[in-house]
Write a structure and sequence with these properties.
alpha+beta, ten-stranded antiparallel beta sheet, 21 helices, 35 strands, hydrolase, hydrolase activity
């Protein structure tokens, strides 16, 4: 039983009090804390007591002071200073440390979950208490940090009539450990105080919300606004006007950025004769052929079979790209030289191969070509974001294709990356990571022990975004000017994957790392007027971007043998070849049931991210898992996208346009007009409308309601028939439109 304490200010130093509990209380709720362990129990007015944290290792308490709304004390003779403040529905917790080190703060038992946990993994999930599938998933996850592994630095607890949400005001250097607790899971939150910023406190907010699964997310949005850290999409578009083209745009990656397509060869005997000849360029190209391509060139007849045509053209394209890279993959890459080399080499190809090729080099190309842009435009898709999956090289080979896309009203962007720097001379195919010797040497993240932080998949080194900025600015300027892109995609900069760097001459905290990444995105958007997006869009690194890929469908099954390695498995995602159409992006496969239950079960999905960032950041799938990738969840994914008012994402190649463009057009007809109106509006509400939670509703700032029926039966609501497997849009004037999931 909780015993009220006096609310007048008093100071107590007695050891007896140091071992007892202190209480903060207002008209809304009461909070009881044990200063020695930071054990917490809370009780909303008229509600039950919730043992929120069992407390951490016991410490000596001193200098304890309490007023009506505030409690302050020290641990271990001033090694830590702690403060709790109760302000209406918020309990603010702040901890200062005298020295660097990791400190446990919370030990949340499974019983604290109440009915379930509200967890922002990707877009968001509801984890029912005691659910065996979720328990295994979280235990296998083992631990996560609150900047990278969570899309928002928060989690919530559903107690029916009320909710409790933890918000990490400081989202960096935090670790959440998962452990089994009876039939459920317990969480332990730890924070590392780093020597790079000893005065930076760990601050949290515990928010008492109503019976709303989005309560914590809405509180986080309010906090961002109050702190000046929320940027509306309207504000971003005002600074980067091309960003208006994101409104109503589906997203797609184009593949096949090599210089030539088989159709560009009009005289095969003549083409082969030149390729086999003694000319300087053909000889250099043959030097890059692999055994299969070399054998085909030696054995092929005057007019190759279709497979041989593709093989030889792919080999020529790969060799041309390798020759182009020779000019700039050096110890000190020159961005202007690099941007110009592809066009120069295209001219050399035209002169060397002459009449064996079609006469207009500007019309050459497969997936990335003027012809592709014309086909997309003719299909009746007026708004698109188009990314070049192979990077900016496709745009440098085909600036006319980029121009045709821009002229059609699309945003056309390259994939680009500066997160990892490779050692000069290594892995030439990872073009974006060739940043030069100086970046590799001087911009690498240095870990606490003095070692460099290995880059993506243990290749190269991760970089300090402040240090790499001059290279980024020079390359983006040069490529954008030459290719004509009107948008940009920066890989990894918005993932929340940030590191402390202990380089003596340039120390860097995780917070500063995040700021550097956001500043880079903002510079491209604002200074160059190229609306910029990035991967994921996690809350702590979301400023500066207009769109993000990875929130709706994140990376799924990373490390799963069947999905990643076993080519005979029905779940195998595919390979990173052939270049014009890599199977990892185009092969459609089923998703394992256990992963489907976690990532795509509509009854346990929540639009937490949209509750914060709808109207600020446009989000869609990670590029590894487009809207067509997983055959057995396509319908659920489609309905969730429309319910949350977020765009689909697709992959396109020259050979898949005929099949995929009609699919895109079907969803576009429903999505585009809604998103044009709602993209700048906040999501104001989410509701489950049926006991099985398969009938769901979202509401937006202009009064629009979207109702999704994920179930297999029609439903009735307020006299309105809601078709099975459908989304109904109800406009402010009462008019409505209906979309039924594809193939259902």
């Amino acid at each position: 039983m909780l015993i009220p304490r006096p609310l007048s200010f008093f100071l107590l130093l007695a050891p007896l009090w140091a071992q007892a509990a202190s209480t903060l209380e207002n008209a809304l709720w009461r909070v009881e804390v044990e200063p020695a362990t930071l054990a917490l129990r809370v009780q909303p007015a008229g509600g039950p007591v919730v043992a929120l944290s069992g407390g951490v290792a016991k410490r000596t308490v001193s200098v304890l002071q309490q007023s009506a709304s505030r409690l302050q004390w020290q641990w271990n003779a001033g090694a830590y200073r702690l403060e709790l403040e109760l302000k209406e529905r918020d309990l603010l917790l702040s901890v200062h440390a005298k020295a660097a080190g990791e400190l446990q703060l919370l030990r949340q038992p499974a019983a604290a979950l109440g009915r379930g946990m509200i967890l922002p993994l990707a877009e968001g999930h509801y984890v029912p208490a005691g659910d065996a599938v979720w328990r295994k998933f979280l235990l296998d996850l083992d631990e996560f940090n609150t900047s990278q592994d969570m899309s928002l630095p928060m989690w919530g607890l559903d107690h029916g009539a009320f909710s409790l949400s933890w918000l990490m005001v400081n989202p960096f250097n935090n670790r959440v450990k998962v452990a089994r607790d009876g039939d459920g899971v317990g969480l332990t939150l730890s924070h590392e105080f780093v020597s790079l910023a000893p005065a930076t406190p760990m601050s949290l907010i515990l928010h008492l919300g109503g019976a709303d699964p989005l309560a914590g997310a809405k509180r986080y949005r309010d906090w961002l606004v109050a702190e000046g850290r929320f940027e509306s999409l309207k504000e971003k578009i005002a600074r980067s006007p091309e960003g208006a083209k994101l409104l109503g745009a589906s997203h797609a990656y184009l593949w096949g950025g090599g210089l030539l397509a088989p159709a560009d060869v009009k005289d095969w005997p003549g083409f082969l004769a030149v390729l086999r000849g003694d000319g300087a360029l053909p000889a250099r190209l043959r030097g890059y052929f692999d055994r299969e391509a070399g054998a085909a060139l030696a054995d092929v007849r005057a007019v190759p079979e279709r497979y041989q045509q593709r093989l030889l053209v792919d080999a020529v394209n790969a060799a041309l790209t390798a020759v182009a890279r020779e000019s700039w993959q050096t110890a000190a890459p020159d961005a202007v030289v690099m941007a110009g080399r592809y066009g120069e080499l295209r001219g050399e190809v035209a002169r060397t191969f002459g009449r064996s090729l079609t006469p207009e080099p500007g019309a050459w190309g497969g997936g990335v070509s003027v012809a592709t842009m014309k086909k997309i435009r003719k299909a009746g898709l007026p708004r698109l974001w188009l990314g070049l999956g192979e990077g900016w090289e496709g745009g440098l080979w085909h600036p006319e294709a980029v121009g045709a896309g821009v002229e059609a009203g699309y945003l056309v962007a390259p994939y680009d990356s500066y997160e990892t720097a490779l050692k000069p001379g290594s892995n030439p195919d990872w073009a974006t990571a060739h940043l030069g010797e100086k970046v590799y040497r001087d911009c690498a993240i240095v870990l606490k022990g003095g070692l460099f932080k290995a880059g993506f998949q243990k290749s190269g080194r991760y970089t300090d975004p402040h240090c790499v900025r001059p290279v980024l600015q020079a390359r983006v300027r040069a490529v954008a000017a030459k290719a004509g892109f009107n948008s940009w995609f920066l890989d990894a900069y918005a993932t929340g994957m940030v590191y402390d760097s202990y380089r003596a001459e340039a120390p860097l905290t995780q917070s500063q790392n995040a700021a550097g990444s956001m500043e880079a995105s903002r510079w491209i958007s604002d200074a160059l007027k190229l609306p910029t997006g990035s991967e994921d869009g996690n809350g702590p690194t979301a400023q500066g971007i207009l769109f993000a890929h990875g929130m709706q469908t994140p990376v799924v099954g990373w490390g799963d043998k069947d999905m990643q390695k076993d080519k005979n498995s029905p779940y195998f995602l595919g390979s990173w070849f052939p270049a014009p159409q890599p199977t990892v992006f185009f092969r459609q496969v089923p998703l394992k049931e256990a992963l489907r239950a976690i990532h795509f079960n509509p009854a346990t999905r929540l639009p937490l991210y949209q509750a914060v960032f709808h109207g600020s950041v446009v989000t869609t799938n990670h590029w590894l898992f487009d809207s067509l990738k997983f055959a057995n969840v396509r319908g659920d994914s489609e309905l969730a996208q429309l319910l949350y008012n977020v765009p689909p994402l697709y992959h396109l190649s020259g050979d898949t346009l005929e099949q995929r463009l009609p699919i895109m057009k079907r969803q576009d007809a429903f999505f585009r007009p809604l998103h044009q109106r709602l993209a700048t509006e906040p999501m104001t509400a989410f509701n489950w409308l049926s006991s099985d939670r398969l009938l769901q509703e979202t509401r937006f700032g202009d009064g629009t309601r979207l109702i999704a029926n994920f179930g297999d039966k029609d439903q009735q609501l307020d006299g309105r028939r809601l078709l099975k497997r459908s989304v109904t849009a109800i406009n402010g004037d009462g008019s409505s439109t209906v979309y039924v999931a594809a193939g259902e």
